[in-house]
Amino acid sequence: MPRVSQDHLDARRRQILDGSRSCFARFGYEGATVRRLEEATGLSRGAIFHHFKDKESLFLALAEDDAARMADVVAEQGLVQVMRNLLDAPSGVEAKALGADWLGTRLEVSRRLRTDNEFRDRWAQRSELLTAATRARLQWQRRSGNLRDDVDVDVLTAYLELVLEGLVSHLAMGLPARHLGSVLDVVEESVRRHRGR
Question: What is the pLDDT of residues 80-112, one digit of tens each?
């Protein structure tokens, strides 16, 4: 029997993550049945669960994948850019990871954190990635002289994370997003160092 290449295994794993992202976003965790996951990924349950132990492991891997993608954006452009990507939500796999489908996954993570202690424990091990990336970006901005220096970096990190959570809730409720780009301009300006101070 021929051996499957690592590239093939990686591509299959990516196919499962991309398909399941849409499924979880559309139907929620409970509604993302194995049948729906099969339809969304175009693969059999055997193929899906060859790569992931169970549905929860798949969901955690997806949430972790999304957090890693967000951390990459944060490292290059900051957390406010992640929020702008949510507002733009163009099509395409990369954009969906930081747009509408990501929003659905993020909401499911938030809901499960409130209701599932075991999930909360497993997620805690993975959730530091975005916080660490935000903190590192803010520290770099401070060393560059671009970040206000009268507020601790940890406080600014928490502030930006709260704004992100508020934006996620706002979008999830279907409230108007017309002025939110300008709101994010204000948020960005609020952490910037002003030379005249």
Answer: 998 998 887 654 444 444 455 667 777 778 888
Q: What tokens were used for 145?
A: 């002289």
pTM of structure: 0.76
CA separation for the pair 184, 115 (Å, rounded): 30
DSSP string of the chain?
-PPPPHHHHHHHHHHHHHHHHHHHHHHHHHH--HHHHHHHHTS-HHHHHHHSSSHHHHHHHHHHHHHHHHHHHHHHH-HHHHHHHHHH--SSHHHHHTSHHHHHHHHHHHHHHHH-HHHHHHHHTTTHHHHHHHHHHHHHHHHTT-B-SSS-HHHHHHHHHHHHHHHHHHHHTT---TTHHHHHHHHHHHHBPPTT-
pLDDT at res. 185: 96
Q: Tokens representing 100?
A: 């509408």
Residue stretches of the chain with pLDDT short of 70: 1-4, 89-102, 125, 195-197
Six token digits for residue 185: 């301009």
